[in-house]
Design brief:
Elements lengths: L2 H21 L6 H23 L11 H23 L1
Helix pairs in contact: 1-2, 1-3, 2-3
Length: 87
């Protein structure tokens, strides 16, 4: 993986974190925390898509499938992190 792909993933994760924070109102960690969770969530979303066999969710590109995958992973991660935060 080259530096450009890593930077795209980071940018995509930041966007996904922001969107996931808007979707999961009340379960977030503020704008910066949501962006960090979004970056981690984009990796989680890519992994989950691979496990589930969703071939269209390619990471490394800035397209609709990648954004949806990253947002999905970020929402899942925000949900789990919110559960942990409550306990």
């Amino acid at each position: 993986m080259d530096i450009t792909s890593i930077l795209i993933w980071l940018a995509l994760g930041a966007v996904a974190g922001f969107i996931a924070g808007q979707i999961m109102k009340g379960r977030g960690f503020g704008i910066v925390g949501n962006i960090i969770v979004g970056i981690l969530g984009s990796f989680l979303g890519g992994w989950l898509a691979g496990v589930l066999g969703i071939g269209a969710a390619q990471t490394g590109g800035f397209n609709v499938a990648s954004i949806l995958t990253a947002v999905g992973g970020a929402v899942v991660l925000l949900f789990v992190a919110g559960l942990i935060k409550k306990s």
